[in-house]
Backbone:
């Protein structure tokens, strides 16, 4: 390998400096994060009843989301097994979750092109991950709250991996290997146990793949559909679902759900398209697909049909998420659920762009490739203007004070011998790191769960006059 070729090989890694910096910046904030609300509820149940007992109680009384419920107990399980403080384990679990997200995105999106180099994979993967994070509807629920990320970011990873694998195989007109089918079946089963709309996405992906292949590999697709249906059935058959739905008396309006799903999806598509970070990501992807990614010729008609189908598919899936949410609750999809939708829209439309890029793909000279990489690096700089990152920078001065007050509360609740404890009200409440704080009512959430975690009869926050 000549010096020029060696430099060109590693240059994509240098072009990834901006997204990597953003990812490290966002990762550093996890060190200030602390458990809240549902984290305390599940941790106290785990400490008292173990994993199986906790899952049984929640399945019977609240919901059938077995996978996220199990994942939310991980900090408590690690803390109990290692005797390390729960508040020390918690941010480490968040950091590992972020690493898994970035690694999964990098691995999955890199499979859209054959023979892509590792530096190129790092460039496209880190930029996509950074774009998804800075465009998050709620960065706290995506990265800094285990109870918010587990039910929606874990299935987002699963949905992305299943979608890209099916798109890749369809675009290359290749059969899914038995090992791949087994892995996809497992992913579909666990993904269907995460929330109520992800199984619908997976069913749509698999059905569309089978349709595009004109029925080829029907057995493999039936196996994936069966795995998804099995997980979905377990989720829906939870007795706790009916009890949870009673708290949403405005739900169940079918005709209104069709209209409001369109309304809420339209609002999110509008702001997403208007974001400079979104525009920069897709400009980056066009440059990458045409000038940097390995050359891969495909029939134009087949590629255009596939690309158009992907766009319709992901928009339809996004609509389904808003429909399910409004029908069930009479409200907009929760912000943490909208995080999952944003990831799907970014990745799905990126798949379509990557497919179209095969038609216009050129084999440039080395200086054209260098200019293209400079263009990608320039586009990635616009990610610093992402709405979530702007909010982080605005609230950053509060993070140290928030962490100190968190640890002071934690120390007081751990060491106090009194059965009823009054803690000081927070002086700072950064929305990136917290939502519901303790109140003056010890019977309401999160007070009741915090009290159970610390084995107290009552925990309230001092209310200023």
Residues:
């Amino acid at each position: 390998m000549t010096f020029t070729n060696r430099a060109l090989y590693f240059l994509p890694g240098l072009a990834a400096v901006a997204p990597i910096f953003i990812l490290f910046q966002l990762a550093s904030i996890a060190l200030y994060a602390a458990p809240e609300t549902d984290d305390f509820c599940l941790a106290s149940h785990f400490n008292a009843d173990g994993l199986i007992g906790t899952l049984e109680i929640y399945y019977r009384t609240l919901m059938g989301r077995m996978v996220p419920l199990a994942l939310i107990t991980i900090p408590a399980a690690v803390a109990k097994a290692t005797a390390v403080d729960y508040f020390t384990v918690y941010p480490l679990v968040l950091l590992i979750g972020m690493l898994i997200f970035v690694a999964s995105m990098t691995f999955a999106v890199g499979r859209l092109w054959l023979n892509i180099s590792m530096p190129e994979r790092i460039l496209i993967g880190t930029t996509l991950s950074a774009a998804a994070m800075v465009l998050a509807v709620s960065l706290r629920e995506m990265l800094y709250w285990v109870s918010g990320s587990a039910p929606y970011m874990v299935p987002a990873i699963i949905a992305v991996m299943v979608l890209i694998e099916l798109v890749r195989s369809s675009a290359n007109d290749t059969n899914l290997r038995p090992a791949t089918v087994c892995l996809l079946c497992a992913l579909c089963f666990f993904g269907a146990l995460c929330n109520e709309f992800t199984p619908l996405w997976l069913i749509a992906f698999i059905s569309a793949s089978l349709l595009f292949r004109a029925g080829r590999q029907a057995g493999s697709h039936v196996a994936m559909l069966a795995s998804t249906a099995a997980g979905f059935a377990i989720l829906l058959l939870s007795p706790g679902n009916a009890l949870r739905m009673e708290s949403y008396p405005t739900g169940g309006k079918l005709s209104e759900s069709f209209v409001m799903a369109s309304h809420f999806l339209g609002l999110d598509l509008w702001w997403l398209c208007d974001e400079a970070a979104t525009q920069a990501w897709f400009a980056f992807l066009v440059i990458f697909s045409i000038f940097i990614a390995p050359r891969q010729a495909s029939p134009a008609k087949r590629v255009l049909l596939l690309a158009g189908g992907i766009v319709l598919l992901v928009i339809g899936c996004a609509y389904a998420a808003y429909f399910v949410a409004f029908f069930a609750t009479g409200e907009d999809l929760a912000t943490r659920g909208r995080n999952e939708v944003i990831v799907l829209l970014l990745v799905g439309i990126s798949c379509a762009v990557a497919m179209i890029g095969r038609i216009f793909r050129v084999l440039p000279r080395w200086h054209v490739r260098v200019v293209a990489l400079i263009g990608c690096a320039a586009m990635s700089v616009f990610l610093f203007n992402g709405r979530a990152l702007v909010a982080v920078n605005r609230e950053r001065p509060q993070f140290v004070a928030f962490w100190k007050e968190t640890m002071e509360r934690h120390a007081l609740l751990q060491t106090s011998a009194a059965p009823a404890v009054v803690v000081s009200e927070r002086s700072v409440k950064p929305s990136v790191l917290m939502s519901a704080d303790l109140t003056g009512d010890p019977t309401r959430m999160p007070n009741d769960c915090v009290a159970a975690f610390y084995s107290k009869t009552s925990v309230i926050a001092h209310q200023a006059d």
Q: What stands out?
A: The radius of gyration is 23 Å. The beta strands are 420-423, 458-461. The chain has 22 helices and two strands. The chain has a mean pLDDT of 93.
